[in-house]
Amino acid sequence: MNRYYPIMLNVEECKCVVVGGGSVAARKVEGLLESGAEVVVVSPAISAGLRDLANVGAIRVIEREYLEQDIDGAQLVFAATDQRTTNAKIAKDARSRMIPVNVADAADTGSFIIPSIVRRGGLLLAVSTSGASPALSIRIKKELEQRYGQEYESYTKWLGNLRIRINKMEIDERKRRELLREALDIPPDSWNNDQDEEAWERQIAVLMQRLHGRDCT
């Protein structure tokens, strides 16, 4: 079994090429669009869903068989055709260019795999069994979806806004970290991302008081 190194890539506005036009390719495209990538799909035929995305300009489609030059300048490549020999060629071409490649029908021939993902705004939870059991990954993903509901999108945004303000304070780094840890215990009814600066200052003052109370005990 391959031992993968987990990493989060920033592919926003980066060219990512998906070769294939079926349901597997569509799933790859969906995840890339959620990450802000510039997606190019290469396939002589594409699904209705991909056609809709192309019609609104969300993706670019090259409607023909794959050619080696299609992956020039790509940051990521996805081999998602229903032809194993074609996928193998795509993987070979990508490796020769030092481009990370994912191979749908033979994960171990590619350089990376796609985990099961739960996305809640800035919160991204990824689950992988390194290819041993996709079914287990899906089961754990469903458990995470129930444990971390849609409210965590607002929560992570609130924590990010709070962090920006705390990092501007003239206090030492240790105190900043302690304040941010203290914020994890703030109840959901306080996760207000639309409050004015005075409200933010009051909220931070409450955190300071709580932290001071803990230091005194």
TrEMBL record:
Residues 120-146 form the Siroheme synthase central domain. GO terms for molecular function: ferrochelatase activity; precorrin-2 dehydrogenase activity. It catalyses: precorrin-2 + NAD(+) = sirohydrochlorin + NADH + 2 H(+). Pathway: Porphyrin-containing compound metabolism; siroheme biosynthesis; sirohydrochlorin from precorrin-2: step 1/1. GO terms for biological process: siroheme biosynthetic process. It comes from the Bacteria. Pfam families: NAD_binding_7, Sirohm_synth_M. Gene3D superfamilies: NAD(P)-binding Rossmann-like Domain, SirC, precorrin-2 dehydrogenase, C-terminal helical domain-like. Signal peptide: none annotated. Its EC number is 1.3.1.76. SUPFAM superfamilies: NAD(P)-binding Rossmann-fold domains (SSF51735), Siroheme synthase middle domains-like (SSF75615). InterPro entries: Met8-like, NAD(P)-bd_dom_sf, SirC_C, Sirohaem_synthase_central, Sirohaem_synthase_N. Keywords: NAD, Oxidoreductase, Porphyrin biosynthesis. NCBIfam families: cysG_Nterm. This is precorrin-2 dehydrogenase. It comes from Paenibacillus abyssi. The lineage of its organism: Bacteria, Bacillati, Bacillota, Bacilli, Bacillales.
